[in-house]
Every structure is written in structure tokens, then in C-alpha cells.
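batch job 7 of whatever, protein = Probable glutathione S-transferase GSTU1
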Amino acid sequence: MACEKGEGDVVLLDFWASPFGQRVRIALAEKGVAYEYREEDLANKSRMLLEMNPVHKKIPVLVHGGKPVCESLIIVQYIDEVWAHPNPLLPTEPYPRARARFWADFIDKKIYDCGTRLWKLKGEALQEAKKEMICILKLLEGELGDKKYFGGDAFGFVDVALVPFTSWFYTYETSAGFSVEEECPKLAAWAKRCAEERESVRKTLYDPQKIYEFVGLLKKKFGVE
């Protein structure tokens, strides 16, 4: 499929449950970019994936005009630059732009790692991971404040970075015994608002129960009971 703007075809190498790949899908949807989706078997990676991301050998990879772009936040920024309109994701002014990048980087470094520990660990280690996750979410809620989205009235870069993890919240909550809605009501309301008001989010995210079932398979794979 050809993209609406820009040169060359657009191909996305991805895996359905990946919150990092979902970032890219949401960004492409926000921009109205048509693309070819190629689902990867992460246990048997395709030759194309290995050739297009020889350093990390991971999804997602956006291939635009035969040229690969890797790492989800870099891909989202690339999409925002190549298809600048509609729906710009990053602010135009340097300071708010830097601030958005800071929080997206914070999400990248914190959420996935801590969330993985929630379903892998037990006992005291699990309780420590739970405390850390609640702290992370509260910091994000503090940045959100009373705004509609992280950037204000417009859905943007930080929202794209974080919203895929909301479909994982049920798994985190069930694994560690806490409630995002109780701990961070504004953040929970933001997640609901994104799903209800952004078609890009609604059509990309999977049912939390399906994610929970997928994590159950991962537990078996890693011998986590």
C-alpha cells in the first residue's frame, strides 16, 4: 500500500501485543498514513526483520521507501516529521517539545521493565515492583494534572508513548493486587478518554483480557507460576 504523503511504500514489521509497535500504529493512524502490516513471529524472526534491524533485531521497524527506521519513539518522531499534517504530535516550540521528549523517555525507561517484574516476581520483590509502579504512575498523573491530554487539548507525543500500556494495566493490577483507578483516578480517566475519543487508539489497542491471556503464555514459557 502506498502512503498518502511522502515517497515510497510504508511497511511496518511488528507484533500484535507489543505496546511499542502499537505506538507506531497509533501514530500512523493519527496521520492517515496507509501502510502494509507484517506480523512477526518473534521466535522465528523474518529475514527482512534481521536485515532491517541488524543491531537489535527487534520490532517495531518502519520501512519507508526501502529504508528502515528503528526504535518506537524514534519512529513516531520520524512519522511526525515526514507527515507533518494532520495532527502534529510534538509541540513546535523548543521547550514544550523537549518536555514531551523527556516524559516519553521516562515512560520508555520505566513502565515496561517494571510491568514485566510485576508478572514475573513474587513475595517481597513483587511488592517492591508494585510500589515502584504506583510511584511511576503517580508521577505521570502529576504531569497530566487536569489537562485533557498530556500536551493540553491536543492528543500528542506523550499520549502516544503511554496509551498502549493502558491495555496492560489489567495484567499489572491482577498480578500485583492494586487498582490504577483507585491509585491514579485522573490517569485512569485519561486512559478511558483516549480509548473513547481517539479512533486511532480504539482501533489499535487490544482487549486487556487478551493481553492477560498472552502474558499467561509468557509465564508458561518462562516457568513463572
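notes: The chain has two domains: 10-82, 94-222.
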